[in-house]
Every structure is written in structure tokens, then in C-alpha cells.
Amino acid sequence: MAKFMDVHSGFVGVTANQLKEAHERDAAIEAEEGAHFERAWLDPESGKVFCLSTGPSKEAIMRIHERAGHPTAEVYEVSVEVA
Amino acid sequence: MAKFMDVHSGFVGVTANQLKEAHERDAAIEAEEGAHFERAWLDPESGKVFCLSTGPSKEAIMRIHERAGHPTAEVYEVSVEVA
């Protein structure tokens, strides 16, 4: 399993409820790809969303987001983390 | 206090130790700005780093990163979060 950060653009003005709904659409199908979406952060001014997930591959993450209706090509495998 | 995600580019091939050192340079001065860097994730292949922080303003986060030697203009205030 690897960890991924993906970036979405164009979510200007999106509300907390709308982000929650989008996240739930990912969560509803994530098991089919062996992935898990941990957290998502939204800047409604710039429209940027950042999603942190685990999964078997970048392509698995992209497929889930595409099927959930919010595709992105910007998926990064973040193999190093500090806290 | 607000929450921020910032993005750095150009960290291709950076190691876990180097990321830790960079993060510690932020941590060493963050209190001067009333900020806190929570976590950082690196994709050493693309060279992207994502930093999650809290602080009083985007400018405070930018000043810390600049003084620590890794400036970025890409700082997003992520006022909405789901988990």
C-alpha cells in the first residue's frame, strides 16, 4: 500500500456539505480498488482540494475519483512523510 | 487560527532525512509567527512537497518558509476539511 496526495482545481465556492458529499462518493466505492480516502481539505476561494489517501496505485486513486465524478490527473505518491 | 496547505516544487530526489531537516528549520522558528507545521508529505519523483500547518495568516506561513530556505507562493487556506 502506498500513500497519495491528489489535487483538484475548480471547486470555487464549494461548501463543507458539498465536499462531504464528494468525499462520500469516493468512500462508497474505494473498497473496490483496495483504497481508502483519509482526509480532504478545501480552499473554497482558490477552488483547490487536496485529498490524502492510501491505495495500491496512482491509477486506482484516479479511477475512483473519475467514477465519483471529480477526475484529476494530479495524483502524487507521497512516499516520505514527517510529523 | 486558520489551517493551510502549501505546495513546494523542485524537491526531486530529496531523502526522508533532508525533508526532516527542512521541516525542523520551519519548526525552529514557527513560534515567532504563532504558527505550527503539523505534517509534510514528499513525492521525491515529482519533487512535490505538501505541508499542512496552522497559523494566523498565509503571509506568516510564507515568511517562515522563506526564512527556512524553501520559499513558496503556493499557500492555500483550507477552511473546510472532511475525514
Can you describe this structure in just a few lines?
The first copy, chain A, has 83 residues and is of the alpha+beta class. The first copy, chain A, is built from 2 helices and 5 strands, in the order βαββαββ.
Question: Which stretches of chain A of 5+ consecutive residues score pLDDT under 50?
Answer: none
Percent helix of chain A = 25-40%
**Per the principal axes of the C-alpha atoms, what is the gross shape of chain A?**
globular
What's the count of strands of chain A? 5
Task: Report the order of strands and helices of chain A.
Answer: EHEEHEE
Please tell me the overall pLDDT of chain A: 97
Can you walk through the features of this model?
The structure is a homodimer of 83-residue chains. Chain A has helices at 16-29, 58-67, and strands at residues 2-8, 36-43, 48-55, 75-77, 80-82. Chain A is 29% helix and 35% strand. The two termini of chain A are 20 Å apart. Chain A contains two helices and five strands; from the N terminus they run E-H-E-E-H-E-E. Chain A has 83 residues and is α+β, with helices and mostly antiparallel strands. In chain A, a hairpin with a 4-residue loop joins strand 2 and strand 3. Chain A is globular, with a radius of gyration of 12 Å. A four-stranded antiparallel β-sheet of chain A has the order 2-3-1-4, with helices on one face. The interface between A and B is medium-sized, with 29 and 29 residues.
